[in-house]
Design goal:
Order of helices and strands: HEEEEE
Radius of gyration: 31 Å
Number of strands: 5
Oligomer: single chain
Strand order of the largest sheet: 1-2-3-4-5
Structural class: alpha+beta
Shape: rod-shaped
Strand content: 25-35%
Number of helices: 1
Distance between the termini: 81 Å
Largest sheet: 5 strands, antiparallel
Number of domains: 1
Length: about 130
């Protein structure tokens, strides 16, 4: 009878140890998945803000083209447009080289765009539009 109780106690001890290891394994898996989710969230946020900066820089080029079309004397002008907090764009028109440079900024992310244009009266054509690294 004493041997039976001893073996039963050993089986309970082994089951307890196995259950603890299983719980530790599950806890490690949950921690790893939460860490991956946090990293994925940060990557998504960074991608969105980078694209917002690019779109703001594109908006600067579009604003410059609009001004060139509607003002025949638009020469060497720059402008800064503030949108929501943390988001803005600025642009510069260089009529000597027929070039527009624009920078968009969104929550610490920045993107530069450069465009070459030709102008004839109120017609403005973009010949080259590049994201500047």
């Amino acid at each position: 009878m004493n041997v039976k109780n001893h073996m039963r106690h050993e089986k309970k001890s082994i089951a307890l140890i196995l259950a603890m290891f299983a719980m530790l394994f599950v806890a490690l898996l949950v921690t790893a998945f939460l860490d991956m989710a946090t990293i994925d969230q940060q990557i998504t946020t960074n991608t969105i803000r980078g694209l917002q900066a690019q779109y703001l820089a594109d908006a600067g080029v579009e604003t410059a083209v609009y001004n060139l079309r509607n003002n025949t004397n638009y020469n060497g002008t720059s402008g800064i447009i503030n949108h929501t907090s943390g988001c803005n764009y600025s642009f510069t028109v260089d009529n000597t080289s027929d070039k527009i440079d624009s920078t968009g900024q969104a929550w610490g992310f920045s993107c530069n765009v450069s465009a070459n244009y030709t102008k004839s009266g109120n017609t403005v054509n973009i010949n080259n539009w590049n994201i500047v690294p």
